[in-house]
Amino acid sequence: MSSLQDWPEPIIRVQSLSESGLPMVPDRYVKPLSDRPNIHQPESGDDVNIPLIDLTGLSDDENELSPTTMARISSACREWGFFQVVNHGVSPGLMDRARETWRSFFHLPMESKQAYANSPKTYEGYGSRLGIEKGAILDWSDYYFLHFLPLTLKDYNKWPASPVSCREVIDEYGKELVKLGGRIMKVLSTNLGLKQDQLQNAFGGDNLGACLRVNFYPKCPQPDLTLGLSSHSDPGGLTILLPDHQVPGLQVRKDGRWITVKPASHAFIVNIGDQVQVLSNANYKSVEHRVIVNSGMERVSLAFFYNPKSDIPIKPVEELVSEDKPALYPPMTFDEYRLFIRLNGPKGKSQVESLKSPRCQ
């Protein structure tokens, strides 16, 4: 882990670049032609979007979702890896407070934010890059990363003290998202034909991991040359994203095309991470996604990661392994798994695909 002690180059805050009024994107942020977004001619029509699912009837204690709704969630997990949820049990007021509190943080003076500057050892705090490859092409974004669970990693001193009530809002939001993640995990488990708590138990039961990455995408002078976040699948279990309510930016890869997600009002965007793909023996798919930026408006989004306990070996659930469909992945802990992205940054689906057992490739 000694290679993760510090960044290979001085960190430049993308927000500072944006606010300097520079007319062109610096070369360090210019993506190869094959990775650049098609800003002016969207690849998907206005009628294409990820599934939108109403969770009315799903509570901590019982699941009263209709068979039709359960089937739609199952289909979304297998075909899209993404879906939006409304009537999810988290108050719209809390969602708005969380997003706008973080927006206020990113508009604090730079010296206030720099007090929380992060390192690649844990990524906790205020950051501007993923991966430690010297000379790597960077993404057009800054972020803040913090741990919520396990409690041994939860450190309020690493959470922003400003703006006022920031820590209280983060704490309340995190508690609600952990509960929502647990409810969704029960549905995913049931839809796989497993006991409703089986996926959760494979995560470590109540001893799971949870963390928050708040993304800040400043205005960009040449949004057709760069990305706010490069293509990747999420390494963890389940991601619950609170998008910016004014500006779209998330794109999901579907059938070789990039679909720009159109967020519904006060919806969360849920996506399958690599760990659930492994546990489900690829019945559920983690899917490549990326973020585009624009020249007119900044964006703020909150990605809440609901993850396995970091030292438990994650492997396909026995009930989903058969002679016809052998285990596709060898056991690996989440600690071992996420080291890849911390060293290399986002790399499409290359990590989870490289883990497949040789006989299954």
UniProtKB/TrEMBL annotation:
Pfam families assigned: 2OG-FeII_Oxy, DIOX_N
GO biological process, one term: defense response
SUPFAM superfamilies documented for this protein: Clavaminate synthase-like
Catalytic reaction annotation: jasmonate + 2-oxoglutarate + O2 = (1R,2R)-12-hydroxyjasmonate + succinate + CO2
Cofactor(s) demanded: Fe(2+); L-ascorbate
Keyword hit for Iron: yes
GO molecular function: dioxygenase activity; jasmonic acid hydrolase; metal ion binding
Protein name: JASMONATE-INDUCED OXYGENASE2, Jasmonic Acid Oxidase 2
Keywords for this protein: Dioxygenase, Iron, Jasmonic acid signaling pathway, Metal-binding, Oxidoreductase, Plant defense
Domain Fe2OG dioxygenase: 207-308
Family, per entry: Belongs to the iron/ascorbate-dependent oxidoreductase family.
Organism (species): Hibiscus trionum (Flower of an hour)
